[in-house]
Design a protein that fits this description.
7 strands; 3 helices; alpha+beta; disordered C terminus; Alpha-D-Glucose-1,6-Bisphosphate, Chain A, domain 4; 179 residues; 26% helix
Amino acid sequence: MAPTAEYEIIRTFDAPRALVYAAWTEPEHFSRWFGPRTLATPIGRIRLDVRPGGAWQATLTGDEGFEVTLRGTYREVAAPGRLVFTTGDPDAPGDGPASVVTLELDESEGRTTMRFHQFGVNTDQEHAEQARAGWIEFFDRLSEHLAGHLAGHLAGHLAGHPADEPAVRPVGGPVARPA
């Protein structure tokens, strides 16, 4: 029988649940936090078909042409509170590691608690601990992204325009907003 391992990570973010969910399901957000700090996840190399049976794929890139592609399938999608997806193919993993991830998001007073549970096959405890450490780094980056996104939104609001419609100020001219 193939070795299995599982773990849970619980994090609370100072962000509404809908934004945390969007960070998991929209490439524009996903590209800003998914992966270790030493690698990039270009938006053009992300596919998130967020529906039961839909595929997800993200290619992380690094120095000297390094690339690694992670992929899986969504098993459950219940926006904005729950996602269940695979990494690899846990039903037929071959010799490689694979897993099922269950993500639950609960909001209270504008903060979101994320419960991340990963059950791996072809995974021993040492590999699981390395994966857990990697996810913790990802979630540190997620926290930074959410804080930056909210700060940008607040700054835009205080300046009198939405964050997704930045003010344009020609040199020496008045502020103009896109129509």
